[in-house]
């Protein structure tokens, strides 16, 4: 799985390009009088079955532990309890954001950076919950490369996917240590993953530790990790988030509330019972490496909620800070209307 290749702004660029009845009780013997319990069973079997509302949820990438709460909510019946029949689907070529904005999916997994850039260009998508409270991404390198701080990027080769955001991130971190970003060689490695790239001519790459970092631990390939949020509060943005469209919020607010409530239960389950949650994801997606899923889930579960008062909570300051950072680095051409980019209105009062 190439989780390290989840390039938020690359995904956004793609997104912007696409603006019964029950079983009857046994009949009593002829001439016999039905018992109260039999009568109750018969009545229950004839009671109308509540119709579930079909809902599509699109992932941002192949299934991984960012998505565990959704799979738990489906497996444990939390979605059904809210009257929802949820189908979890993979993104099309246009990306998850485009499917959410167009209505091809009712809900989906997105990123703060993606929603920010999308809304600047008119994509009507809104974040309704932060999956993880703090940014777990950063620049990783094999220990042998001796890259322990942004200053050590000098005279090294970075392997990426060609997004302007990468250059801005590298420059921003290096400036905190008065290092020269012009001394970094940037190479587009396409679809190559971290492990393949660093065995060739690449010194460091941008990854999410919860998957690629944990995978490196399991492989016995130690790495140095430089987290983005260690060097700037503005880079401690929400990645990933759950999102929906403005149309859904306006026309079906009760549905948005029901989905968010069930998802919150799913993620709270993953917080409280990481091993059980991991097994649910493994059962749902048997192609995943069970050891990686289990280890990743144990690492990530306490980070879903972290220091927030409840799972999913989003702060206006986080959205404002990152939008200003993007504007300062010319990744946006105008200010973001922050108050329309996210909402906490649909979160339950508590995830418990």
TrEMBL record:
SUPFAM superfamilies: Periplasmic binding protein-like II. The keyword Signal applies. Keywords: Signal. It comes from the Bacteria. The keyword Signal applies. Residues 64-277 form the SsuA/THI5-like domain. PANTHER family: 4-AMINO-5-HYDROXYMETHYL-2-METHYLPYRIMIDINE PHOSPHATE SYNTHASE THI11-RELATED, THIAMINE BIOSYNTHESIS PROTEIN HI_0357-RELATED. This is ABC transporter substrate-binding protein. It comes from Paenibacillus aestuarii.
């Amino acid at each position: 799985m190439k989780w390290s290749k989840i390039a938020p702004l690359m995904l956004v660029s793609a997104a912007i390009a696409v603006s019964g009845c029950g079983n009857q009780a046994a009949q009593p013997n002829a001439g016999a009088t039905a018992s109260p319990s039999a009568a109750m069973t018969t009545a229950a079997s004839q009671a109308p079955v509540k119709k579930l509302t079909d809902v599509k949820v699109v992932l941002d990438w192949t299934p991984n532990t960012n998505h565990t709460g959704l799979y738990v909510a489906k497996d444990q019946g939390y979605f059904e309890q809210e009257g929802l029949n949820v189908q979890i689907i993979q993104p099309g070529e246009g990306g998850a954001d485009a499917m959410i904005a167009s209505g091809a999916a009712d809900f989906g997994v997105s990123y703060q950076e993606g929603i920010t850039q999308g809304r600047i260009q008119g994509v009507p998508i809104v974040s309704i919950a932060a999956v993880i409270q703090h940014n777990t991404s950063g620049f990783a390198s094999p220990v042998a490369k001796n890259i322990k701080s942004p200053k050590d990027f000098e005279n090294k080769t970075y392997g990426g996917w060609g997004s302007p955001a990468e250059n801005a991130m590298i420059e921003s971190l290096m400036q905190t240590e008065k290092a020269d970003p012009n001394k970094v060689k940037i190479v587009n490695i396409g679809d190559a993953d971290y492990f393949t790239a660093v065995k060739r001519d690449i010194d460091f790459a941008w990854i999410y530790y919860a998957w690629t970092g944990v995978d490196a631990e399991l492989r016995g390939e130690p790495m140095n990790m430089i987290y983005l949020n260690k060097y700037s509060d503005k880079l401690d943005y929400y990645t990933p988030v759950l999102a929906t469209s403005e149309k859904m919020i306006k026309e079906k607010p009760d549905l948005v509330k029901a989905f968010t409530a069930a998802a919150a239960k799913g993620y709270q389950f993953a917080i409280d019972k990481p091993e059980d949650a991991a097994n649910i994801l493994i059962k749902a997606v048997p192609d995943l490496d069970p050891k990686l899923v289990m280890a990743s889930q144990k690492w990530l579960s306490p980070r879903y909620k972290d220091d927030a008062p409840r799972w999913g909570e989003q702060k206006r300051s986080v959205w404002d800070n990152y939008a200003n950072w993007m504007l300062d680095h010319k990744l946006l051409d105008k200010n973001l209307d922050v108050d329309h980019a996210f909402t906490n209105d649909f979160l339950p009062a508590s995830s418990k």
